Amino acid sequence: MKKRTEEIIKILDEQFGTEYVCYLHYETPWQLLIATMLSAQCTDARVNIVTKDLFQKYDTLEKFANADLKELEQDIKPTGFYHNKAKNIIACTKALAERFGGEVPRSLEDLTSLAGVGRKTANVIRGNIYHDASVVVDTHVKRISKRLGLTVNEDPEKIEQDLMKELPKDHWILYNIQIITFGRTVCTARSPKCEQCRLQKYCKEYKM
């Protein structure tokens, strides 16, 4: 590992700790899967408000699989893109019931074969449910990894590959958790608080 990357990781560990945190509320693996699907282009806080009632109303996988599309759309409307999300949730939960015996699969290949599940969602499941080392590339990770010079790529899959080479395996899951907090509190997309940032000297966009 490059000395520079080592220093970045050390600062992130010191500032944001090394505890595994999931910002989405869930009790079962399939609930986390649905919550992650809902979180696309939506804040985790808003998803948690929606799923509080949603998971009470649809308290089994079967209820989601047999849900009325129009009704489910209304139930998840505040998360945005609700037509697509509702359609994918029904198709995904049906596939879980029919193909996987009601269990959320572990492999990237099986997970990404489900409707509405891309690599990011699959890696959230692999990291949080199965504790398989995986790099989750969300908007914070994409933006900040480029700023820190850990990748030059735009494509999430290429960024994922770059970070897997760059970061030690024990930080693959952790990096995402730390960067989300960092991206929400310090390195915000609009008007980042550069004067408070401990990673200034590694930032490609910081102007002295």
Automatic annotation (TrEMBL):
<dbReference type="InterPro" id="IPR011257">
    <property type="entry name" value="DNA_glycosylase"/>
</dbReference>
<protein>
    <recommendedName>
        <fullName>Endonuclease III</fullName>
        <ecNumber>4.2.99.18</ecNumber>
    </recommendedName>
</protein>
<dbReference type="Pfam" id="PF10576">
    <property type="entry name" value="EndIII_4Fe-2S"/>
</dbReference>
<dbReference type="InterPro" id="IPR023170">
    <property type="entry name" value="HhH_base_excis_C"/>
</dbReference>
<feature type="binding site">
    <location>
        <position position="187"/>
    </location>
    <ligand>
        <name>[4Fe-4S] cluster</name>
    </ligand>
</feature>
<dbReference type="GO" id="GO:0019104">
    <property type="term" value="F:DNA N-glycosylase activity"/>
</dbReference>
<feature type="domain" description="HhH-GPD">
    <location>
        <begin position="38"/>
        <end position="185"/>
    </location>
</feature>
<feature type="binding site">
    <location>
        <position position="194"/>
    </location>
    <ligand>
        <name>[4Fe-4S] cluster</name>
    </ligand>
</feature>
<feature type="binding site">
    <location>
        <position position="203"/>
    </location>
    <ligand>
        <name>[4Fe-4S] cluster</name>
    </ligand>
</feature>
<dbReference type="InterPro" id="IPR003651">
    <property type="entry name" value="Endonuclease3_FeS-loop_motif"/>
</dbReference>
<keyword id="KW-0408">Iron</keyword>
<feature type="binding site">
    <location>
        <position position="197"/>
    </location>
    <ligand>
        <name>[4Fe-4S] cluster</name>
    </ligand>
</feature>
<keyword id="KW-0255">Endonuclease</keyword>
<keyword id="KW-0378">Hydrolase</keyword>
<dbReference type="GO" id="GO:0051539">
    <property type="term" value="F:4 iron, 4 sulfur cluster binding"/>
</dbReference>
<dbReference type="Pfam" id="PF00730">
    <property type="entry name" value="HhH-GPD"/>
</dbReference>
<keyword id="KW-0540">Nuclease</keyword>
<keyword id="KW-0238">DNA-binding</keyword>
<keyword id="KW-0004">4Fe-4S</keyword>
<keyword id="KW-0456">Lyase</keyword>
<dbReference type="GO" id="GO:0140078">
    <property type="term" value="F:class I DNA-(apurinic or apyrimidinic site) endonuclease activity"/>
</dbReference>
<dbReference type="GO" id="GO:0006285">
    <property type="term" value="P:base-excision repair, AP site formation"/>
</dbReference>
<dbReference type="GO" id="GO:0003677">
    <property type="term" value="F:DNA binding"/>
</dbReference>
<keyword id="KW-0326">Glycosidase</keyword>
<dbReference type="GO" id="GO:0046872">
    <property type="term" value="F:metal ion binding"/>
</dbReference>
<dbReference type="Pfam" id="PF00633">
    <property type="entry name" value="HHH"/>
</dbReference>
<keyword id="KW-0411">Iron-sulfur</keyword>
<dbReference type="InterPro" id="IPR005759">
    <property type="entry name" value="Nth"/>
</dbReference>
<comment type="function">
    <text>DNA repair enzyme that has both DNA N-glycosylase activity and AP-lyase activity. The DNA N-glycosylase activity releases various damaged pyrimidines from DNA by cleaving the N-glycosidic bond, leaving an AP (apurinic/apyrimidinic) site. The AP-lyase activity cleaves the phosphodiester bond 3' to the AP site by a beta-elimination, leaving a 3'-terminal unsaturated sugar and a product with a terminal 5'-phosphate.</text>
</comment>
<keyword id="KW-0227">DNA damage</keyword>
<keyword id="KW-0234">DNA repair</keyword>
<dbReference type="InterPro" id="IPR000445">
    <property type="entry name" value="HhH_motif"/>
</dbReference>
<keyword id="KW-0479">Metal-binding</keyword>
<dbReference type="InterPro" id="IPR003265">
    <property type="entry name" value="HhH-GPD_domain"/>
</dbReference>
<dbReference type="InterPro" id="IPR004035">
    <property type="entry name" value="Endouclease-III_FeS-bd_BS"/>
</dbReference>
<comment type="similarity">
    <text>Belongs to the Nth/MutY family.</text>
</comment>
